Amino acid sequence: MKIPDAIPASNSAAPACLVVSLDALQRNYATLSQLAAGARCAAVVKADAYGLDAAPVARALREAGCTAFFTATPEEGAAIREATGGQPDIFVLNGFQPGQHAQLVSANLIPVISSLETLHAWRAEGGGPHALHVDTGMNRLGLTVEEAAGLAGEEHHDLRLVMSHLACSDVPGHPMNARQLTRFRDVLKGFPGIPASLANTGGVLLGPDYHFDLVRPGVGLYGLNPATERNAPFHPVFHVDAPILQVRTLRAGDTIGYGARYTAKDDRLIAIAGFGYADGLPRAAWQAGTARLGDKPVPIAGMVSMDLTALDITGHEGLARQLGRVQFYGEDIGPVAQAAGTIGYELLVRLGQRLKREYAR
Questions:
Q1: Active-site choice (29, 46, 277, 345)
Q2: What is the CATH number of the domain that holds 157?
Q3: d(CA 174, CA 183)
Q4: Which of 113, 146, 194, 334 has most Cβ atoms within 10 angstroms of its Cβ?
């Protein structure tokens, strides 16, 4: 069926929305828990649960059995406390800054201490439950291995966790993984009986040697694979559902969008979707990104605009008319991220706030 040019593709007026499957989220949590059997499985819900809205995500994870969460800031931690109640342990990865003691204690948060100076300041303001982050090769936050060794003879009755962070777990064969594992094991000799944590999602997939007492997956919960060279058993958790605002025909030689970057080699049918870089879709995704029309992958055609994206739906005229909407990300987030020269993590946390969040079971 021929669709006329330059008319709305459907009567659907609903703007683009972010659809989150809480069932898929819980299945991913169960998968990670099984992979790390014998270790406690926490959940990283920083950055508003990677852009998916931390409160409903944390509640769903709590229903699935999660008893520990990691946030970046005290404000994020307090929001998770409000959403999940008084039982879970909530760790604050950015730790403690002088003057924050009352804020952390009032929400029953556990700061992750990353320097000797911060540890002394925490104790000076009253102390309490805390974790220690030791740098084993990331060279970001953390006490040095030598500084951690200097604490080995002290009493640590308020120390809840000793942790480090893997720099290259997304590259399974990278020698840094084994190097950090060895260093972390050496650090732990000075903290007998204290729970230990090294593995993020990639670390969980590296195997039992990396699991220790607690694993703290983030991106795998949300359906993303941290290592494209390795299969991951995670279910897609989210996609963006966007309206088709218009359908038009391009003739051979016609161009699309800013910069006229895309030129039609022959007649093509183009759908204009109401989703753009203001909503988080990178402009550069036009180079090789895809979306979905039902179960049909369709390529992005031309530079992504602030509110609009062109898609080549040639051969799918009837389906476009029937559905009136397209889906971005989901199982296509990898190609979109690759086309934009980034990773799925970044696309996820950049999802715009004007996208309405919808939660499905």
A1: 46
A2: 3.20.20.10
A3: 15
A4: 113
